[in-house]
């Protein structure tokens, strides 16, 4: 008998299966590794999904290896993977020089971005147009000489770190001083001027200021159908660009001459009530905005009056517009509806120009059935609409219907079930009578029972 050799497969029950224990062991190690990755809540991506020069998890990308460097932001295998990324960290990348328009397009949920100790020299004004959740931006120790405020105009950045960049003491970078305030000194942020460096917080430049803008008149109240003229005046150095922002149904014309622009509205539509009109002046230092809301007066209009619907309460839905706010009154069959605890007008939603609500009725009866008319009125006119509402049948309507009364479907089913059970029971009873009457003549009937009656008692006792 030969001795057992280590790892000889002696634990196997048959030849040729010694490697089964190894396969089982490796399988359990694989299960353990997957379990740890899933349990950690931040599993690492496969090598195929992550660029070879970076390390990736489901929410983070880190590229810090200077030898296997990158020259642009990593692109993962699918858009879904990139949308899950919230944190990108890039450092020590000597070939990384720019952030372009589409580089971060698919990183929609990006919150933290760090590009440090690299050679970043350019950031596009549209670099973060799709990253509205970005809150932390660290561009420390790069080669940025200037940075435009327009890059961040739509963002709500909480932290911006720019120290260690060769920023120029130029008007284009003045916004950084104004935006960071005391934080500029905390970062020891400096700019280059005449070959020397100075604290950015002490930068003062002539002819470099945030523009000013004035919209006149500051408030507009106008009757529907009338015309109105607005003028926007700007000032500042460098000379600012003037931009009107609005979304109107009303026809308009814009005329601009120098730093004054005139907006003319003709035949003003009530659909533009509470619409915002803004005039913005911007230059390389920053922007200023002046705006107003159109106050358009117009008579009421009932845009919707629908059939009564039953929810927690009965409700007759309506939508009404008008400025000033219309007064509402209800009529049922041409009689004024007295509102109180059980019948009341409720406004559920208010938009720019409409009021949405319902006439709410708590447990109405047949006495509340009828033709309901809504009248909306303000000092410029009125509007009315009506709808038929039916809440409950009259109690005596069921007694005056023609023809025999019809049982509810449930009652008919119950009757059929009872009759069926009775028929089955009666049939079984008749079969028992037949068996008892003719069973004595059967070879397998009563005679079979007699056999037990003729067995001696002693046999039974045994």
TrEMBL record:
GO terms for molecular function: ATP binding; transmembrane receptor protein tyrosine kinase activity. It comes from the Eukaryota. The chain crosses the membrane at residues 413-436. PANTHER family: KEKKON 5, ISOFORM A, SYNAPTIC ADHESION-LIKE MOLECULE SALM. Residues 1-41 form the signal peptide. SMART domains: IG. GO terms for cellular component: plasma membrane. This is Neurotrophic receptor tyrosine kinase 2. One of its GO terms (biological process) is cell surface receptor protein tyrosine kinase signaling pathway. Keywords: Disulfide bond, Glycoprotein, Membrane, Signal, Transmembrane, Transmembrane helix. Residues 211-291 form the Ig-like domain. InterPro entries: Ig-like_dom, Ig-like_dom_sf, Ig-like_fold, Ig_I-set, Ig_sub, Leu-rich_rpt, LRFN, LRR_dom_sf. It comes from Lates calcarifer.
């Amino acid at each position: 008998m030969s001795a057992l050799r280590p790892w000889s497969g002696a634990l196997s029950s048959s030849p040729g299966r010694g490697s089964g224990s190894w396969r089982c062991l490796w399988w359990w190690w694989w299960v353990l590794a997957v379990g740890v990755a899933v349990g950690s809540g931040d599993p690492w991506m496969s090598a195929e999904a992550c660029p070879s020069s970076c390390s990736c998890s489901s929410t983070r990308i880190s590229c810090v290896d200077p030898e296997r460097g990158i020259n642009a932001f990593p692109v993962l295998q699918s858009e879904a993977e990139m949308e899950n990324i919230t944190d990108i960290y890039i450092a020590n990348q000597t070939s990384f020089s720019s952030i372009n328009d589409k580089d971060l397009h698919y990183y929609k949920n990006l919150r933290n971005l760090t590009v440090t100790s690299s050679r970043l020299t350019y950031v596009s004004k549209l670099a973060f147009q799709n990253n509205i959740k970005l809150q932390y931006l660290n561009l420390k120790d790069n080669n940025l000489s200037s940075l435009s405020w327009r890059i961040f105009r739509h963002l709500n950045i909480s932290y911006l770190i720019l120290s260690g960049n060769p920023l120029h003491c130029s008007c284009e970078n003045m916004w950084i001083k104004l935006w960071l305030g005391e934080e500029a000194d905390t970062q020891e942020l400096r700019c280059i001027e005449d070959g020397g460096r100075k604290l950015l917080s002490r930068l003062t430049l002539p002819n470099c200021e945030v523009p000013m803008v004035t919209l006149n008149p500051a408030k507009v109240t106008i009757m529907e159908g009338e015309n109105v003229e607005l003028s926007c005046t700007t000032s500042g150095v460098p000379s600012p660009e003037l931009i009107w922002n609005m979304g109107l149904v009303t026809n308009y014309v814009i005329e601009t001459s120098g730093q004054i622009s005139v907006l003319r509205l003709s035949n003003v539509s009530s659909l533009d009530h509470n619409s915002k009109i803004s005039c913005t002046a911007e230059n390389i230092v920053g922007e200023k905005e002046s705006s107003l809301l159109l106050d358009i007066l117009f008579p009421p209009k009932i845009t919707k009056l629908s059939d009564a619907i039953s929810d927690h309460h009965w409700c007759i839905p309506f939508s009404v517009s008008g400025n000033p706010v219309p007064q509402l009154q209800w009529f049922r069959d041409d009689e004024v509806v007295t509102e109180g605890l059980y019948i009341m007008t409720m406004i559920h939603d208010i938009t720019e120009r409409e009021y949405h609500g319902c006439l709410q009725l708590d447990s109405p009866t047949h006495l509340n059935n009828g033709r309901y008319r809504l009248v909306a009125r303000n000092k410029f006119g009125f509007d009315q609409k009506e709808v038929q509402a039916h809440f409950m049948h009259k109690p005596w309507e069921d007694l005056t219907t023609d023809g025999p009364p019809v049982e509810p479907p449930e009652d008919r089913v119950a009757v059929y079930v009872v009759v069926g059970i009775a028929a089955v029971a009666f049939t079984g009873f008749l079969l028992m009578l037949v068996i008892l009457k003719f069973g004595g003549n059967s070879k397998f009937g009563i005679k079979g029972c007699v056999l037990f009656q003729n067995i001696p008692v002693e046999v039974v006792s045994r």
